[in-house]
Amino acid sequence: MNIKLFLSQFYLPAFYRKRKTAELFRVTAKTFGVKPAAVLPAESESPDALLERYAEFSKNQVQVILKNKRLVEGVKAGLFAGAREMGVSLRNELNLKNDRDFHIATRLIYKALKIDLEFGQNGEIVIKKCFFSGFYSEEICSLISSLDSGLIAGLSGGLKMSFYQRITEGCSCCRAVISK
């Protein structure tokens, strides 16, 4: 494990959280055809305030798309592709070399998004708490999880992620499986 990844386990600067949340915001906005300038963070905006604004924005955008079902698959593909690109960039930036690095980086990224993620047995991911579950319905969560799948694909170098249980479905936690 490199020093940057190691130190990030103990301290993730607010400016870095804000920058990466803004990047996620831009990827999402682009997929929905919203100009990135419209979602730029204010200088004084905290990472938590930006994350909350992102949750509202993404919820509202998906609600519009769900009214036109023929657009759903294209949006899912766009979210996946944008998040995959982010994941590849983070994989390179953090110099991830192995599964251990991938697991540490994934937990850190999700923690920055206020998501309590753990790796379980046999490629399972368990999410005990999710900030976004307070904003998203089951349908919205299902569509927006294309971001999760893309991020994991990019961070891992190509693994697939598939949810089979969600907090937004009324379950106590989210569960997903990661496979080749």
Tag the structure with descriptive keywords:
180 residues; alpha+beta; Muramoyl-pentapeptide Carboxypeptidase, domain 2; four-stranded antiparallel beta sheet; 7 helices; 13% strand; globular
Q: How many discrete structural domains?
A: 1
Q: Looking at CATH, which topology would you report?
A: Muramoyl-pentapeptide Carboxypeptidase, domain 2
Structural class call reads alpha+beta
Mean pLDDT: 94
- The radius of gyration over CA amounts to 16 Å
- H-E order: HHHHHEEHHEE
The CATH class is Alpha Beta
Helix share, percent: 40-55%
Q: Based on the coordinates given, report the CATH architecture.
A: 2-Layer Sandwich
| Outline type | globular
Instruction: Indicate the proportion of strand residues.
Output: 5-15%
How many helical elements?
7
Terminal-residue CA separation:
23 Å
Low-pLDDT runs: none
* Number of DSSP strand runs: 4
User: For the largest beta sheet, what order do the strands appear in spatially?
Assistant: 1-2-4-3
Query: Sheet bearing the most strands, described?
Result: 4 strands, antiparallel
How does this structure look, described?
This protein has 180 residues and is of the alpha+beta class. It has one domain: Muramoyl-pentapeptide Carboxypeptidase, domain 2, CATH 3.30.1380. The chain has 7 helices and 4 strands. The protein has helices at 3-8, 14-31, 47-66, 72-93, 99-112, 138-144, 146-156; strands at 115-119, 124-130, 160-165, 174-179. Strands 1-2-4-3 form a 4-stranded antiparallel beta sheet. Strand 1 and strand 2 (124-130) form a beta hairpin. The longest helix has 22 residues, at 72-93. The protein starts with a helix and ends with a strand. The model has no long low-confidence stretch (mean pLDDT 94).
